[in-house]
Amino acid sequence: MKHLTLLALLASTSLVHAAGTQAVTVSMSEMMFMPMNLSLKAGQKVTITLKNTGKADHEFQLYAKPKVLPKGETAWDAYMEKNSIWLASRDTSLKIAGKAVTGKFIEVALKPGQSATLSFTPARAGTFEMACHEPGHYEGGMKGAVTVK
Ligand SMILES: [Cu+2]
Questions:
Q1: Helix (H) or strand (E) holding 94
Q2: Which of 63, 75, 121, 148 is at a distance of 20 to 30 A from 20, taking alpha carbons?
Q3: Any signal peptide, and if so, which residues (predicted)?
Q4: Span from the CA of 142 to the centroid of ligand 1 (angstroms)
C-alpha cells in the first residue's frame, strides 16, 4: 500500500514537471525555418529540437531583434553575444547529435541530417529573432520571429 502511494506521488510530480516545460521542434532547410514563427513563455524552460533537413549547413541563432542591422560578420557576432536569448539564461544546455556542448556558444551549427537539443529558460518577454547567418542565408530569408510573453 505504501509502495502504491509513493508511485502515485512520483507520477503526479512528473506530470507537473512535464507541464512546466515547453517543447518545440524547428526544422532548418534551404533558407527557411519550419515553423517560421515561435511563441514562448518567459520564465518557463523550453526545449527546442533542431533538425537540419536541408542539403547545406545551417545555424540556429536566437537574439533580441535588432532595430538596426549590424553590418558584417564581426558586428553580428558581437551583437549576438550581447543579445543571445540563451546566454541570458542560467540553465542553458545543448546536445548536438547526442553529444553535450559546453562553454559559451552563440549559434547551433548543424550539418545536413544532424539534430540537436537546446534547452534554456527565456528570462524576459520581448521580440526576438531566430536566424541562420551562414553566408547569404539571412539575406535569403532564413529568419523568423520569436515572441516571448
Ligand atoms: Cu542556413
A1: strand 93-96
A2: 63
A3: 1-18
A4: 6
How far is ligand 1, taken at its centre, from the CA of residue 95, in Å? 19
Residues with Cβ < 8 Å from 80, sequence gap 6 or more? Answer: 61, 63, 106, 107
**Model confidence pLDDT, tens digit, residues 23-35:** 999 999 999 999 9
Task: Tell me the three cell numbers of residue 90.
Answer: 542560467
**Residue 18 Cα to ligand 1 middle (Å):** 31
Residue 44 Cα to ligand 1 midpoint, Å, equals: 27
pTM value is 0.85
131 beta partners: 61, 143
Rounded distance from Cα 60 to ligand 1 centre (Å) = 8
